Amino acid sequence: MRVGVLTGGGDCPGLNAVIRAVVRKGVKVHGFDFVGYREGWKGPLEGLTMELGIEQCRGILPRGGTILGSSRTNPFKLDNGVERIKDNLAKDGVDALVAIGGEDTLGVATRLADLGVNVVGVPKTIDNDLSGTDFTFGFDTAVNIATEAIDRLHTTAESHHRVLVVEVMGRHAGWIALHSGIAGGASMVLIPEQPFDIEDVCTKVKDRFRSKYAPIVVVSEGAVPMEGGEMTLVSGEKDAFGHVRLGGIGDRIAAEIEQRTGAEARAVVLGHIQRGGTPTAFDRWLATRFGLQAIDAVAEGDYGKMMALRGTRIDRVPLIEGTGELKLVSDEEYAEAQVFFG
Amino acid sequence: MRVGVLTGGGDCPGLNAVIRAVVRKGVKVHGFDFVGYREGWKGPLEGLTMELGIEQCRGILPRGGTILGSSRTNPFKLDNGVERIKDNLAKDGVDALVAIGGEDTLGVATRLADLGVNVVGVPKTIDNDLSGTDFTFGFDTAVNIATEAIDRLHTTAESHHRVLVVEVMGRHAGWIALHSGIAGGASMVLIPEQPFDIEDVCTKVKDRFRSKYAPIVVVSEGAVPMEGGEMTLVSGEKDAFGHVRLGGIGDRIAAEIEQRTGAEARAVVLGHIQRGGTPTAFDRWLATRFGLQAIDAVAEGDYGKMMALRGTRIDRVPLIEGTGELKLVSDEEYAEAQVFFG
Amino acid sequence: MRVGVLTGGGDCPGLNAVIRAVVRKGVKVHGFDFVGYREGWKGPLEGLTMELGIEQCRGILPRGGTILGSSRTNPFKLDNGVERIKDNLAKDGVDALVAIGGEDTLGVATRLADLGVNVVGVPKTIDNDLSGTDFTFGFDTAVNIATEAIDRLHTTAESHHRVLVVEVMGRHAGWIALHSGIAGGASMVLIPEQPFDIEDVCTKVKDRFRSKYAPIVVVSEGAVPMEGGEMTLVSGEKDAFGHVRLGGIGDRIAAEIEQRTGAEARAVVLGHIQRGGTPTAFDRWLATRFGLQAIDAVAEGDYGKMMALRGTRIDRVPLIEGTGELKLVSDEEYAEAQVFFG
Amino acid sequence: MRVGVLTGGGDCPGLNAVIRAVVRKGVKVHGFDFVGYREGWKGPLEGLTMELGIEQCRGILPRGGTILGSSRTNPFKLDNGVERIKDNLAKDGVDALVAIGGEDTLGVATRLADLGVNVVGVPKTIDNDLSGTDFTFGFDTAVNIATEAIDRLHTTAESHHRVLVVEVMGRHAGWIALHSGIAGGASMVLIPEQPFDIEDVCTKVKDRFRSKYAPIVVVSEGAVPMEGGEMTLVSGEKDAFGHVRLGGIGDRIAAEIEQRTGAEARAVVLGHIQRGGTPTAFDRWLATRFGLQAIDAVAEGDYGKMMALRGTRIDRVPLIEGTGELKLVSDEEYAEAQVFFG
């Protein structure tokens, strides 16, 4: 049996650990051959392959990135995309595919499975917003990086009486902000699921200064002001201090806080350092176990499934379960930690 | 309402995070007062108290150790131990206790609960061997420290053609060894649940050298040779205190490997660095949530319970469930990762 | 003898280590008393003091920030600033001052020394741009944080064929960029001392992609385009991709690279995480030794001096030597590592 | 011109950075060819070579170990060792050698240089005990690892009233112990250069407990008791290989402290984790600059020299200067930090 492997979407610590586990168990236990498809769905679409065996997987466990490369190519948006993939799989003698990726990559996998392609999926997102699994790998690494950054900023905030706004990843879901905010001892956590009132944020900033502690505000990149609580500084304008304070939500919140409270505020945008580099032990363990389970699913012909962490077990759930709906922070989960915030 | 808090047993990253969460929610939401009992059960036994409020908990979230101190005192092994505890609780006006600790500390809590003391427990062990909960805090930190050590040793093993034996914590359960062995890409993992054959270990060492890779053997401190596979080098004498100080299992395995294979072997015993210092983000998050749930249990009069992680939820389970039986690595869990080992 | 201590300017890992060393040796060896002046020169100006003894310095060695607080107050810019300082020192019975700070703080110290105030200075700047000393504390921490960030970004750059622009601190001097660029294996390092040609940067980006490696460009916040090599996207405008790409030099360079080369480019602005949190071992060692030497200078009445690292020795140099002229990256030092760049 | 490169002796973070810099500048600037000699002096002795060019050096900068492998082979202890080396160099067309190593490796280089071999040396020792240079690469990494370990142990010592003895590397010189002891806030530092009185150590342990702080004792592996202050507990027997494996100095001191003071004491022996894994930024920078200077020395025919850090400059000094005499901690350097100890 010959199995193709591909990785799609943004970078995520643990991708190589999945690939290594898939290949190692595939070769050693199931006696499979492998084809590496390069750059996500572009690989089977354009026939971009690379040799993939135990040798190629040596030493990659602790390394970020993906030896297969990645892209955001979506075959369903291209002419004859599906046909070209089927043709290339046939030409390469590939019987089954392991697709490792997030919402988009697995969305393609789901549709291909419906069209008869033998595919199993491994969920990947540092945002942790895929349904059907307790956690995805990469998330723990991102949360640790954000938490270390918050740890570092605490002393600056205290010693210099500054407000520090930390913008973390999370377009649709606030998991990284919530977990790193709890772990880092933030004063406030603003997430996409709970639109904020900028005036309320500023009140809490002033309260915190009154009790002599400098505030750290953790904000998801996708956080938005609520209706009636809009920010008034227009993106691109200079703020009251003459700084051009622009771009993302973190910078804008810092500018508003300065203008409304008079306290110095600075934004730190963590950006891509959250999604690169060596994975934490948890992410390597989870990614490895996803990989082992995925190749077992292939061996059993259990296609159309996605690997999922449930407690400490790795289960298989229908692909559609993981990609149907985003997993958001619930009201209860957001409320749980409010006693530390504000 | 007045609540006592104590921490017992060995050091564990996250203890302060639990204390902070208990106190903060207790004061802010439930309007409770707190008494800090110092040095585990010795505190209520001997009336060792300290002030405990929001102020005492500032800045402790990222810090290892416990502001309450700890001990291994067991009141059931002392004359009138239980009476003295009840008397001191009454004298201090304490209505309920939050006991944070491992098997021993929670074992005492379980028996005190049976005797009518209002107590809730928070499970603590870096070994992760308490039943009833998916994970305990401190474990993730220990696994990350062990994994980083293994990462560092890889290059030395490769460049210098040496066998490196890494001894990690785990007297009865091999969780730290198994998780760090998977995450660190070890060649072998020896755990208490699976007695090893030293000759088999040496065969695998030689095989690995034959394929040009230097082996890293991760071993739990409680690992033991199987019958018929005993080690033959005599271990160190007992010292003046009756401790067999010299030559833990790691050192002994390294010595046997050298003798039997002729390859240079060195042991690294990680010891106490696994249980001190700042907790990982996961452990801070878990410890914080355990603390929040524990004080809610007190507020609801739901005594005799232990906090437990189930998936991503914090549940309460009967104390007896956590302390009745150790949670060991199952045959399946050990088998799962064997494809990387040997 | 009674000694005042103050810390001025921006945050810098190692400030607490200096304070601890000054106080500990002052008390234990020289038998001095101490007064802590809060918030830089604002402290002696407004009589803001705090108790400062061995007890206040317990546990602060590994902590970022400064227990004395800081500010950018300059007494020479205020009415009667110098008189008020002299009056307060007299009122507090302070015989000598240890001033820990950067160019501005030590500039004030230099002028006060000329006016008869007994002051010794300890140089502090994460930018490493103070003359007279091989290194300043805080710099090594900043370089390590930047290097770890670059390490993390490498895998993303490779796996996703992106240009990553990392903006590090350094308004006037490129030391952090140069050291972290060498240590992180950057493809290019742009520093204030060497104005760059944006077209040349883009050529090198294309060359690097041609040899199949993704470029990482490290840029000091103070880097500037050379005459004739200006960037053309106006700050604040949308770029060719519709992104509002603004603000700092890092963002602007990324935008220009995207527009001119067609390659995806992202900027990561490390900001304040470079100047907070626990110091590296080197910075703790250097800060501690500066503190020990500073209090010895006080004990010897050797005022008007600044502590300086020369090789492995701590020397004392005239304050004016440290503050007279910025220490910039020389042409030779920039040229030395060019073989890795471009 | 064709240049051989070899690495000898124990593992040391930064070896790969030197190799990369030598090769990159050698190829790009000087137009040299390279031969990699494997496993130290064994390489040119037995003709063990590997291809070495820019391609082989990609991605190795942040990696511990050495792509060339290492050994402790000494050609002067073997029959016709020198002749065989000269023959192999001639056969391989090698005009000059860059030897990277410690006392032994450079000692061989020194003698070969006297015998007419064109060789330049790069000093390598995590112990930092080579003369002629302010620091050697690998040392900063080792000190940081030791310091992080001490940081972790502090909370355990405090919370559990334990004495913790940390054994660090340093057979002949106490540099790692001294620097990490200062940086980690140790209570005592015992080094080979200053024989200790065990009774004095125990008195200080008791004093420290009396002032309510738990002691951390940092000890070099080569520390020895002074005459009249011997330890009385017998250490472990020799094992079958004649190694006294059981009970290094750390374990023995902990045992003595327990017996003499009644306080619980534990030893942590850091061992090989100090010499593996990714180098710090400082070590990468230093190693890189050593490599650049070494290949320039070759290009200039300036043989018989060793690279040396002097302040912030890289100088060349006669090989004999580095290997003639060990660089030990002076009485003044040991005395400097005593105010923190005891």
Describe the structure.
The structure is a homotetramer of 342-residue chains. Chain A has two domains: 2-137 and 279-323, Rossmann fold (3-Layer(aba) Sandwich), CATH 3.40.50; 140-276, 3-Layer(aba) Sandwich (Rossmann fold). Helix content of chain A is 38%, strand content 16%. Chain A contains eleven helices and eleven strands. Chain A has helices at 15-28, 42-46, 81-91, 103-114, 139-160, 175-184, 198-210, 249-261, 281-299, 319-323, 331-336; strands spanning 2-7, 33-37, 49-51, 96-101, 119-123, 163-168, 188-190, 216-220, 265-269, 305-310, 313-318. In chain A, strands 3-2-1-4-5 form a five-stranded mixed sheet, with helices on both faces. The radius of gyration of chain A is 22 Å and the shape is elongated. The relative contact order of chain A is 0.17. The model of chain A is unreliable at 239-245 (pLDDT under 50). At the B-D interface, helix 5, helix 8 and strand 9 of B face helix 5, helix 8 and strand 9 of D.
